[in-house]
Amino acid sequence: MKNQYFGDVKDYLKYGLLRCIGASGLELGICWLLTRDDGGNNGQNRKYLEDARYRVHDPELYDFLQATTQKPSGRMVSNLETSGLLPARYFSEVIPESDVARTTAFERAGEVLGGSHLLFFDPDNGIEVRSVEYGGRGSSRYVFWRELEAAWEAGTSLLIYQHFPRQDHRVFAERIAEELRTHTPGATVYTVATQDVVFLVASQAAHVSNIEYGLGLFENRFGDYASVAKIEAPAVEAPQPKHGPRTLPKYHIDVFWSDENESWVANVPDVESCTAAGQTPQEALDQVMTLLQRWFEAARDNGRFVPEPSYRSTVSGSSY
Fold first, then answer.
1. pLDDT tens across 110-140, in order?
2. Could you name the CATH architecture of 3-231?
3. Please, is 73 exposed, middle or buried when counting C-beta atoms within 10 Å of its C-beta (0-12, 13-18, 19+)?
4. CATH of domain 252-319
């Protein structure tokens, strides 16, 4: 979360979602994971505030954002905190990148936000990726699993901002939702998907009815721009069929930079349409391995043909 982007169209949806969940009776805690402004222009889409057709979704919020962002000091998240539009506990410190300083900051956040029914985490990018270590360079742009686990174990439900990477949005949303389930035992998991981001929800059992009320209210108000889905827990695995290999073959994987996509791309030549992108080579490789594993399990379980590795080699590629 950066102050420089306050009031853009993603914020309209974000604050609208929080207001709907708050209307369910749950007490909200908001951890902005604030980072310093960088002077960039990405994300500053406020043209919707010039189009009155957007006002119908949440008139009170729309009017506030329209008026506030025109003021000299209007692009600060503190304006929302003091507006009364979103009653909540707030933790608004800038998140440091040092591991020790970050740990201490989250201890303070726990003191400020303690007692909330639901905690909202608003990182720049979303949940941690393997290429960025806790306390490493760029780590302030992410929330880490250890922080989400601590909040869950304290008895709070979770709402998490997650930016979509350059890959199939539906596949990514389902994958990250299932990963969230493994870190929040017993949770009921939902996704709220928009064009650019997905909000992940892990509900404690005691909060399910409130959260479903809030998500239903949000869908009624903003359903033109977002879709809500309940991610059902996977069924207990049946015994594996005897046909097909039991382990994933060691396929060749090409990893290369794509100027067209402005991202790293990983491709499995032996498997049709098994391609993924990422901001780093490792992220692209992680994503394509997830897709490959899912494809292999589906093929194996349904008796479909699983090709043998061809072990093709290219100068620019990497092999797994």
1. 999 999 999 999 999 999 999 999 999 999 9
2. 3-Layer(aba) Sandwich (3.40)
3. exposed
4. 3.30.160
